[in-house]
Specification:
Esterase, two-stranded antiparallel ribbon, hydrolase, LYPA1-2/EST-like, hydrolase activity
């Protein structure tokens, strides 16, 4: 099979093919790489399969999943292609590793957050939950993409109050969009820019760990 993306995987200690583990797919921001969010998620490595997915388009010293016409305006054809390929990768990795299909999570920052939220809408209950950091949902995804229900999905959205790339108002709008579809959305803001603070990291890790164990985290 043609593997859609290059990636790095961290398997839990004592990993056994016969068991089933929650999995976290990590989608980096524009110009970064697959190792970026793996470091952020490292405290989960004893419980989760961690998979960092590298964008397939080089950008400077890093990578991206799609290109932009301008800030906040993805090139539609490239964006569509990335969504299809990411869905295919999630299915590929689920078959290759001892993944529990009922506990598949997607974590994304910036460009990765945009894709994580899009995957939530296109995959629906095929994903257990998402963590979206400093992102937004493109209008064409809201208006033109086919959507699946996210009613039972666990959703954590956060945004920096002083984000100079995507103003915090976008974070509120994004959270409200999902809150209209799901009454269990967790939305947090932090006194930061376009970045992940220590508090943000701790809260998202707790959210993922507790949710994977069946203890829902409330806002």
């Amino acid at each position: 099979m043609d593997i859609p993306y290059e990636y790095s995987v961290v398997l839990p200690d004592g990993y056994k093919e016969g068991e089933r583990y929650p999995v976290l797919f990590a989608l980096h921001g524009k110009g970064s790489n697959e190792q970026d969010l793996l470091g952020l998620a490292a405290p989960l490595k004893s419980k989760f399969i961690l998979i960092g997915i590298r964008g397939d388009l080089p950008l400077g010293q890093g990578y991206q999943y799609y290109e932009l016409r301008s800030l906040g305006k993805p090139i539609r054809e490239m964006f569509d292609r990335a969504v299809v390929r990411l869905e295919a990768f999630i299915e590929y990795a689920t078959e290759k590793y001892a993944v529990d299909p009922a506990r598949r999570y997607v974590l994304g920052f910036s460009q990765g957050a945009i894709l994580a939220m899009t995957l939530a809408l296109t995959m629906g209950d095929r994903i257990k939950g998402i963590v979206a950091l400093n992102g937004y949902i493109p209008d064409f995804v809201k208006k033109e993409y086919p959507h699946r229900s996210v009613m039972n999905m666990s959703i954590f959205i956060s945004h920096g109050e002083f984000d100079p790339v995507f103003p915090v108002l976008i974070g509120y709008e994004t959270a409200n969009y999902f809150k209209n579809l799901n009454d269990r959305v967790v939305f947090k803001t932090y006194p930061s820019g376009h970045e992940v603070t220590g508090s943000n990291r701790q809260e998202l890790l707790s959210f993922l760990l507790e949710d994977s164990l069946g203890t829902h985290v409330k806002e």
